[in-house]
Amino acid sequence: MILNGTPPGKQSGTHMTDCTVPRHDTQDEPTPTIHNGHLCQTCARQLRTDLTRLPTLYTQLEDALPTRNTGASLAATNGLTGPAAIPFNDAVSECRSQIEHDLHYWASETAADRRTTLPPVLPPAAVPFHAGWITAATKWIPYRTWAPHITGAINHDTTRAWHLLQPRRVKTMNWIDPCPHCRTLRELQATIYETDGDPRPSVIECLTCRQTWTSGIAWLELARQVHTLTKTGTP
């Protein structure tokens, strides 16, 4: 298994650059970083959000280690019963190992950057401990040259864990429009649950103020308000 998280050679930064976190790869236009930083504001917030979610996802993945396939397993076909007949979910196991590795790696990186020593903690307690350690450093991480690498790695782990736990199809779209709540241009994100029977409502969210609009009448009202703000030239 190839483990993520090892950054390439560090590069010198400039006062204003483009955010290079992989989530921006599909955008037509680059997203500028914060002043003197290496992350845009959205990615800096996303890193904190992912670090909050990851320990819970890691714990939930433990329950998913036995596959939930209701069909006959290979072990059962061979006449095995009991624990030996429970198929093991390799993808979930690898995801948990990746989370352990990445959080330990980046907690060590932040400790080294601050010239301090990371206390030894063993799994499973290590995962929430390392996530908390990194979270405490998220105010200055965006100004480190390795900030895009940690943000990309942690987001990849969070997204992969979520998809393993929630295999229903989900599509996200990001764009810039006036936010009626902020009353200025903001990045909006639509999360659309595509699978028939999925009870979760699709939602549009402002990634700055976290105001949300669920699908249906709220989306029509949002479109009307955005149109009005655009016509009036709201900055």
List keywords for this structure.
2 domains, 4-stranded antiparallel β-sheet, globular, 4 strands, alpha+beta, disordered N terminus, 235 residues
What is the element layout, followed by pairings?
Layout: H1 41-63, H2 74-77, H3 90-113, H4 126-135, H5 147-165, E1 170-179, E2 184-193, E3 203-206, E4 212-214, H6 217-231
Helix pairs in contact: 1-3, 1-4, 1-5, 3-4, 3-5
Short description:
Helix content is 40%, strand content 11%.
Task: Give a description of the structure.
The chain has 235 residues and is of the alpha+beta class. It folds into two domains: 18-167, no CATH class; 169-235, no CATH class. Helices cover 40% and strands 11% of the residues. The chain has helices at residues 41-63, 74-77, 90-113, 126-135, 147-165, 217-231, and strands at residues 170-179, 184-193, 203-206, 212-214. The chain has a four-stranded antiparallel β-sheet with strand order 1-2-3-4, covered by helices on one side. A hairpin with a 4-residue loop joins strand 1 and strand 2. It is globular, with a radius of gyration of 21 Å. The chain starts with 40 loop residues before the first helix and ends with a helix. Residues 1-14 and 68-85 have low confidence and may be disordered.
| Helix/strand structural class | alpha+beta
Q: Tell me the number of structural domains.
A: 2
Tell me the β content: 5-15%
Shape: globular
Q: Tell me the number of strands.
A: 4
What oligomeric assembly is this protein in?
Answer: single chain
The strand order across the widest sheet is 1-2-3-4
Topology order in helix (H) and strand (E) letters? HHHHHEEEEH
